[in-house]
Amino acid sequence: MTALSINLNKIALIRNSRVTKIPNVVTHAQMCIAAGADGITVHPRPDQRHIRAQDCFDLQSNLPVELNIEGNPFTEPRSSDQPHVGDYPGFVALVQEVRPAQVTLVPDNDQQLTSDHGFDIAKDGKRLEPLIKIFKDQGFRVSLFMDPDPKAMAMVAALGADRVELYTESYARAHELGNYNKILDAFTETAEAAVAARLGVNAGHDLNLTNLPDFKVPHLDEVSIGHAFTVDALRWGINETVTRYQQALGKTV
Hints:
The chain is α/β, with parallel strands linked by helices.
């Protein structure tokens, strides 16, 4: 069955609107897990606009499920001018210290409001390969954030990655318009190509309770959902929202 990993970035974003520890990221992670979530995802950025480096350490020592850390592997250390925030140690150093079960590499930067494209392997593959090796040598599962492109899957596998996370915004936008079959075919073909290349398949970005039941992509190991989950939890509460997402994945809860 497809695992449901809850992304806590928006919980941290609310906290960061004040100098406070409320809402507490670890507490919300534990509430999601108690409600039936299979994993927790965080995406710490160098500007620490939501999840901070310290959150990653706090989560790793308090979780009975897999922690997935997303981010740009090329980001360098950055000092913070806010003492209560702390410095950003650089993505590689952060992952090496926290030791998550999975690390998802994403080609984002400070200018992006959110992740908006996958890696161009022809452009970035040589830079990614030694970093993937570093993470894998330390026992972390490595996933690359990718657009739905069947031809790229063999190249991802050649770099040594374990999985891809398919960037699903194009599917979400097509689903809103009621004409998503063609783009869904592209995701299905990409998933099939990934499995043929011996890669696992994750997916995420703008998946929600409306479009998730129709995301009939084979071999789907995990979905990561944060923005829509947080909005839905404001309406129904965490317990009910986790249940609804698990049901949207076809599980009996």
